[in-house]
Specification:
Blueprint: E1 2-4, H1 9-18, E2 21-22, H2 34-39, E3 58-66, E4 74-80, H3 86-89, E5 98-104, E6 107-108, E7 111-114, H4 124-134, E8 140-141, E9 150-151, H5 152-168, H6 171-187, E10 204-207, H7 208-211, E11 227-228, E12 240-248, H8 252-265, H9 267-273, E13 281-285, E14 298-306, H10 319-332, E15 336-337, H11 357-367, H12 376-381, E16 416-420, E17 428-432
Antiparallel strand pairs: 1-5, 2-6, 3-4, 3-5, 7-10, 8-13, 9-11, 12-14, 12-15, 13-14, 16-17
């Protein structure tokens, strides 16, 4: 199936379904463009076959790259399945040129059966290595997530309550507030329906194009913002960081065990410091031939946590919890940041962990030698001209612009100081001294 790169995933899935075809795997959110999700290596969850990344199903691309005046200022390049540059172009970060068309390998339309099982996490380190091999679309959340249309008034009220809890609430109050939401989400089947209207129980069986993504809020009518997506910038609803990183499958059990030990040191920090309504989303990614894809089978971890709207960043409750987890994944376990979901500090030195980075940079030099499609930030991430994507300065660690090395990088006037991690002591995080 050949589509323009600006087509939204929702449109591709619906058009493919109407033709009796399925995109084998995709991200869970349907509001992404095809060009954007490919540029950032977006994926679902799978270790079978070709895996869960959409770029694994790319069999052709048309890309427009800069050229001198003698060539009309542009070159249209057609990359077939066997073209030597396709592995660089299918995860490009947007720095090679304009992707105008993409051809994807599809499958005949198929059905899936979905069941969500709730269980304890005592054996999670062992299960994280096995789950992806056992179930074709298997993923896990430490606590479940949902995505559905919500009244704008409710979104604004929820954010206001969250801000009050951040300012004046206790850990117990913050954790109790989200448990109510979790119960409601579980009762509603996390957005799944058995007949297109209501949820009556598991398993939920449906065609792939009806079940593989969520995003009903982008299909809602124009109603004067009486309803909206939770993150719609036009309403003062939820506001979060989303950090995602992957750890090699062989190292994931040890990483999860370390996360559990960190949680057990201070359970309130784990509950109040991360958004447990969304949970820690755990997905599987197969090793890829793409230059900026995963070099080996990996487990992806998605974290969502509160972000202040205050200019310059305001410390959130237990800011150190998520930061320690992220640094542990990237530094202790050699993890890789998700290209589309992270803060500056996560990308520092990351390109050196991609074995085929040199090949990608050679294609970049050939396609765009003058760097027309590059920026200072992309050059820093790719280590093209040296430098670092980290921005060091006052309160930089609060916004994730740096890893702190000095108290001024945190918020010392509010008691947040740069300290070693509680479990991974090589981490440097902004911690506040609390009464015991």
């Amino acid at each position: 199936m050949t589509v323009e790169s600006g087509m939204v995933l929702r449109g591709l899935i619906e058009a493919a379904g109407a033709a009796g075809l399925s995109l084998p795997h995709s991200p869970y959110w349907r509001g992404l463009t095809i060009g954007g999700l490919l540029a950032t290596a977006a994926h679902g969850s799978l270790l079978w076959g070709k895996g869960s990344a959409v770029h694994e199903y790319v069999v052709g691309m048309r890309i427009v790259t800069p050229a001198p005046a003698s060539q009309g200022f542009a070159v249209v390049r057609e990359l077939g399945a066997d073209h030597p540059d396709l592995d660089a172009a299918k995860v490009s970060l947007g720095v090679l040129g304009v992707v105008s068309r993409v051809t994807l390998a599809m499958q005949p339309l198929f059905k899936r059966s979905v069941t969500i099982v709730k269980r304890g996490d005592a054996d999670l380190p062992a299960q994280v290595a096995a789950w992806g091999r056992l179930h074709e679309f298997g993923d896990m959340t430490w606590l479940p997530q949902e995505g559905q249309v919500l009244p704008t008034r409710g979104l604004v009220a929820a954010r206001a309550a969250e801000e009050r809890l951040q300012e004046n609430g206790t850990d117990a109050a913050r954790c109790a507030a989200v448990r109510t939401d979790l119960v409601a989400a579980e009762q509603q089947g996390y957005g799944y329906t058995n007949d297109g209207v209501s949820f009556t129980g598991y398993p939920v069986v449906g065609y792939q194009h009806r079940i593989q993504t969520f995003g009903s809020c982008i299909d809602s009518p124009e109603d004067g913002l009486r309803s909206a997506c939770a993150w719609d910038p036009r309403v003062r609803g939820p506001f979060y960081y989303n950090s995602a990183f992957s750890v090699a499958l062989s190292r994931a059990p040890a990483f999860v065990a370390d996360m559990q030990r960190l949680r057990d040191l201070d359970p309130g920090a784990f509950c109040a410091g991360l958004d447990v309504r969304v949970g820690v989303l755990i997905r599987y990614i197969k090793a890829s031939s793409a230059c900026l894809g995963k070099a080996e089978d990996s487990v992806d971890f998605d974290l969502v946590y509160y972000r202040s709207r205050t200019a310059g960043g305001k410390p959130r409750a237990h800011a150190d919890a998520a930061d320690e987890i992220e640094q542990m994944a990237l530094r202790k376990y050699g993890g890789l940041p998700h290209w589309g979901k992270n803060r500056n500090s996560a990308f520092d030195g990351a390109i050196a962990r991609y074995p085929k980075a040199g090949e990608f940079l050679r294609v970049k030099e050939k396609y765009d030698p003058d760097g027309l499609f590059s920026s200072e930030w992309s050059d820093q991430v790719l280590s093209v001209n040296g430098g670092s994507p980290s921005i060091v300065g006052t309160r930089c660690a609060i916004e994730g612009l740096c890893v702190c090395s000095d108290d001024s990088h945190c918020a010392p006037e509010q008691g947040y100081l740069c300290r070693p991690g509680k479990g991974y002591t090589e981490a440097r995080v902004c911690s506040v001294l609390r009464a015991q």
